[in-house]
Design brief:
heterodimer, A: alpha+beta, 9 strands, B: alpha+beta, Phenylalanyl-tRNA Synthetase, Chain B, domain 3, Phenylalanyl-tRNA Synthetase, Chain B, domain 1, 5 domains, 8-stranded mixed β-sheet, 6-stranded mixed β-sheet, 33 strands
């Protein structure tokens, strides 16, 4: 018994000596065969010896042997691992050298900004809805109270697929789709791609992103619209931002409003400002109380319910927030541009 | 619309400087886009809305300001120098289509001396951005930009038989316009004709022949009202947009026509013109004013603030409405004909809010009666997917949804693309049927701008016609990896991307989203090099593909470096429930580890080996790891060596070595029969 223990100790010593000398995977494999070889491995032979021991000794010796085997296996796999990485060098003496970096991909700025917007509304109990980008005239215009052949349609210059189908010019058709299938209370935002037949310039492209908001319930007022948008804009641009509501026209809201924020480039101080044209204000969204005709189109009684809606261009608002001068930067996908948003 | 300060003064006594006035426009929704000084006058460039044709004239804008400031609106008088002949004796007017022309007023003015306009008139014309032409034309523009009532003036002597017939065009008729274009007319278009032929395209543009010239002495003034839809359809069809058509398609005040004619005739009087007696006014079906009910209570309910009754009455009255009180706080209002936009109570409430001031309406939190659970987890799932890819170092891109029909042909996406009827350009004439073309373009763009490697993804829709002719949009994920993935640093060499980097990211995507591991089967695909592509499926349902991009495709885009791409249908993923998550107890008894190295025939691929290992039916086998694989070296050419580590465990006791030995024997025998392995 003691002889087996002694042998074990010797082998352990031998293994450690040999292990220290291994330089490549071939030598590690040889070491492995020497100890664990199926027929003549030292350990294999020791296990054979074990069988001849009296049962009383067998147990403790067996445990010791198994422990040793595990040790060797572990040491061997560490050696193998080390050999596989010949580059692994000794730890450097200069501990101020830069550490190892893992590159994290950058979210697209529009994704990032959309996420920011969603987060604010989700925190106010809104849920996020989606809808198709290929729409019918009914959902994109008629149900939203754009009469056929009305010049109001001119501001929503449309890309058509055929006489029946078009690319949605705003996210508003999703309002209709949601109100058709759901009864109030409704409290949603709708982000997505929209399309206009626009000649590209610094602030116009044929595709951009919008987010639409819609609330329908009993007793909803214009004051509620103002309060919610005021909170939203401050959450997005900071508490000190100046906000202005002014009357406007959209066929699907009545009363309608446009919301301006103070120009973040000049704060109204530069009469020649390129961002705001010297007005000191930048329009960021259109809003209003849901037009009674829109409610009628989806069988909601405008005497019982009221609601508000808004639509905001994500691209243009992100341009203001990040001071990006050209909308096309978003779609060029230059990595030197995109990767800056890694840190936002 | 350009609004001149001096012109406004004709209608109201403003005691504000031109600068100060600017900010009041914004307050009532007449957004000032620019302020210009023109010849000593201040001109405001105002954004007007499609439903407010009344603001397309100075009178309408003055009326808004009068209401805002509580000022009276002046109405200048237009005295006429008259002939002794009646209009009806001089000209015969027949309106054959009173649907398309509900009102037609006319006057003949004789003895006009055509010539340059006086200074005051030139200034007005220039203020609105037009070029002065002659006194007759300038006067008709002056009336148009005052009242919003377009006029047309004819050389009376050119009207055959002194007749005006308002009718639809006949097939084959043409008209040479004032600006020299030859229009081909169709019977859906309304024309002004004389005895023999059309002399003007009604409400849009006049004809060359009957136009005012230096020789004109007698003028026929047309001040009419035309159907908005008809004007719009005709103008669109012919690709014309004039100051007249712009106003008519928005709806001109039906009652402005008589004043327009008189105003022009009176002004022509300054140039020797004498007007025929009695305005000829063809108005067979006079319109009744619209009446709209209004409840004071409702105003407060919708605006969220009580508005004083006195304010409501004063404002609406100043805007030209008549309020007939039914009972306290309830009225029936009579809408003036110039306000074509006011039809419902909500429209009146907007007027009240506009003049009350949006800034005086309080800001309140929108109350919520209930919160709803999200309809689905798509949004969260999509964001998690992106985060996994960020972790792998993929940057996110967003491309236009448009595709280049010719370029997409190289890809053979297999989808029937949706074509646009009126695309921005031929290079964006279809909707994309794959995300990869965009990703390849992004890659080339970045290689041309100093990038050493490009690793990008996009989530977005592709679009196509289904076989039954219905349009379909499908959420996809596209991935592309090319070139250097890690730059050289002091302790690490530069690393290039490869197929397995992309495959690893995809495998992890499925894992972390909670889906079962997909299967990868080698299968050629039109995007990829032959023999270098795999199809990705979940439970036999194909979800995407992955491979090395075809060199022909790379060449077509000028992409020199190798690139690996993948594309998935996310709908298939999102439609599947991720595996429900359940906690598994941490093992309490130690496990046993055994290694096995074996050789298999090289025709058997990893996935087959893996799936056979997965199928092993052996007691206590907890899991396995394939930790080594090699070929070549000492092995026969048709052999591959694998090393697998097996983990055994019993959940309620320590395993005996013999039990594990037996299990290993079992494994070996099962693998011998399924994979024909040879032990090493």
């Amino acid at each position: 018994m003691s002889s087996l223990q002694e042998k074990l100790e010797q082998y352990r010593q031998l293994f450690n000596d040999l292990a220290a000398k291994t330089k490549n995977s071939k030598e590690v494999e040889e070491l492995k065969q020497t100890f664990l070889g199926r027929k003549k491995g030292y350990l294999t032979l020791l296990f054979d010896e074990l069988k001849q021991l009296p049962p009383d000794d067998k147990r403790s010796a067996g445990e010791a042997l198994n422990k040793f085997k595990t040790e060797i296996q572990q040491a061997l796999s560490e050696l193998e691992e080390r050999c596989r990485r010949p580059e692994a060098e000794k730890p450097p003496t200069d501990l101020t050298l830069p550490g190892k970096k893992i590159y994290w991909g950058a979210p697209h700025p529009l994704t990032l900004f959309q996420k920011k917007i969603e987060k604010i509304f989700v925190s106010m109990g809104f849920s996020v809805e989606e809808g198709p980008e290929i729409e019918t005239d009914y959902y994109n215009f008629e149900a939203l109270n754009f009469p056929p052949y009305h010049p109001a349609r001119d501001s929503w210059d449309t890309l058509y697929i055929n006489d029946k189908l078009l690319l949605r010019t705003h996210t508003s058709p999703v309002q209709i789709r949601v109100m058709e299938k759901k009864k109030p209370p409704i409290r949603i935002i709708i982000p997505g791609k929209v399309y206009r037949r626009e000649t590209p310039d610094p602030t116009h492209l044929p595709m951009f992103h919008q987010v639409e908001g819609l609330v329908v319930d009993r007793g909803i007022t214009f004051a509620h619209l103002k309060g919610t948008l005021d909170y939203f804009i401050k959450a997005l641009f900071g508490e000190k931002i100046k906000i202005r509501f002014r009357p406007s026209f959209f066929p699907f809201t009545e009363p309608s409003a446009e919301v301006d924020i103070e120009c973040l480039a000049c704060h109204g101080q530069d009469a020649q400002c390129r961002v705001c044209g010297g007005t000191g204000w930048k329009e960021i969204l259109g809003a209003g109380l849901v037009d009674p005709q829109v409610f009628k189109n989806v069988n909601i009684d405008p005497e019982k319910y009221s609601g508000w809606a808004f639509g905001l261009g994500i691209d243009r608002t992100a341009m203001l927030a990040y001071e990006i001068p050209e909308m096309r930067y978003f779609y060029e996908n230059d990595l030197r541009f995109l990767r800056q948003f890694n840190r936002k | 619309m350009n609004i001149s300060y001096d012109w406004l003064i004709e209608y109201l006594d403003l005691n504000l400087s031109p600068r100060e006035l600017a900010k009041y426009f914004d307050q009532i929704g007449l957004m000032v886009e620019a302020v210009k000084e023109i010849d000593g006058d201040t001109v405001y460039e105002i954004e007007t809305y499609a439903n407010r044709p009344d603001t397309l004239g100075h009178l309408g804008v003055a009326r808004e300001l009068a209401a805002l400031f509580g000022l009276p609106l002046k109405s200048p008088s237009w005295p006429l120098a008259e002939l002794d002949r009646l209009t009806t004796e001089l000209v015969d007017i027949q309106v054959l289509d009173s649907q398309l022309c509900p009102r037609y007023c006319g006057l003949v003015v004789k003895g006009v001396q055509v010539g340059p306009s006086p200074e005051w008139l030139k200034r007005r014309i220039e203020a609105v951005g037009l070029r002065p032409i002659n006194n007759v034309v300038d006067i008709s523009n002056y009336v148009c930009f005052s009242l919003g009532q377009p006029l047309h003036t004819f050389d009376f002597s050119q009207l055959k038989e002194a007749r005006i017939i308002v009718r639809r065009a006949r097939k084959g008729e043409t008209l040479r316009t004032l600006d020299g274009q030859l229009l081909e007319l169709t019977p859906d278009m309304l024309v002004i004709a004389d005895e023999s032929k059309p002399v003007a395209l009604a409400g849009i543009i006049g004809g060359e022949e009957s136009g005012i010239s230096e020789k004109t002495t007698d003028v026929f003034i047309e001040s009419a009202n035309f159907d908005p839809v008809s004007i719009r359809l005709t103008a669109k069809k012919l690709g014309l947009m004039t100051d007249a058509s712009y106003r008519f398609e928005r709806g001109v005040d039906i009652n402005a026509a008589p004043l327009g004619a008189k105003m022009a005739a009176s002004l022509l009087g300054q140039f020797g013109g004498k007007a025929s007696r009695g305005l000829l006014d063809v108005y067979p079906n006079p319109r009744k004013p619209k009446s709209v009910p209004l409840r004071l209570k409702r105003v407060g309910e919708l605006l969220g603030i009580e508005i004083p009754e006195e304010f409501v009455v004063r404002t609406l009255t100043a805007l030209g409405l008549k309020l007939n009180e039914q009972k306290p706080g309830v009225w029936v209002t009579e809408i003036p004909s110039f306000r074509v936009d006011l039809e419902r109570e909500a429209d009146l409430i907007e007027e009240i809010a506009r003049f009350f001031g949006y800034d005086r309406i309080p800001t309140e939190v929108t109350p919520a009666r209930s919160f709803e659970l999200p309809a689905d987890e798509r949004q969260d799932c999509l964001w998690l997917l992106k985060e996994i890819l960020f972790h792998y170092g993929f940057d996110e891109v967003i491309n236009f949804s448009f595709g280049d029909r010719e370029k997409e042909k190289i890809w053979h996406t297999g989808y029937d693309p949706i074509e646009l009827q009126n695309p921005i350009s031929s290079r964006a004439s279809i909707l994309r049927t794959s995300l990869l073309p965009g990703l390849v373009e992004n890659t080339v763009w970045n290689y041309n701008r100093e990038a050493d490697g490009v690793h990008i993804f996009e989530t977005g829709k592709i679009y196509f016609w289904e076989e039954d002719g219905k349009q379909r949009e499908e959420w996809h994920l596209g991935l592309l990896t090319s070139g250097q993935r890690e730059a050289k640093t002091w302790n690490q060499p530069a690393r290039e991307t490869d197929y397995f980097f992309l495959k690893g990211a995809i495998e992890d995507l499925f894992f972390y989203l909670g889906y079962e591991a997909p299967s990868f089967e080698p299968e050629d695909h039109s995007f990829f090099q032959t023999g270098q592509a795999v199809k990705i499926s979940i439970k036999k349902e194909p979800v995407g593909y992955l491979g090395l991009l075809k060199s022909e495709i790379r060449q077509a885009y000028g992409l020199d470096k190798l690139a690996y791409g993948a594309e998935f249908n996310l709908e298939v993923l999102f439609d599947r429930q991720p595996r429900p998550f359940a906690f598994a107890p941490v093992p309490r008894f130690p496990g046993v580890v055994r290694d096995l190295s074996f050789l298999v025939d090289s025709t058997i691929n990893f996935q087959d080996i893996y799936s056979q290992l997965k199928k092993l039916n052996v007691p206590y086998l907890e899991r396995f790891e394939i930790y080594d694989r090699f070929e070549g070296e000492s092995l026969a050419p048709n052999q591959v060596s694998y090393s697998v580590r097996f983990f055994f465990r019993h959940e309620s006791r320590t395993l005996q070595a013999e039990e594990v030995d037996r299990a290993m024997l079992d494994i070996i025998s099962q693998l011998k029969s399924s994979l024909k392995i040879q032990l090493r």
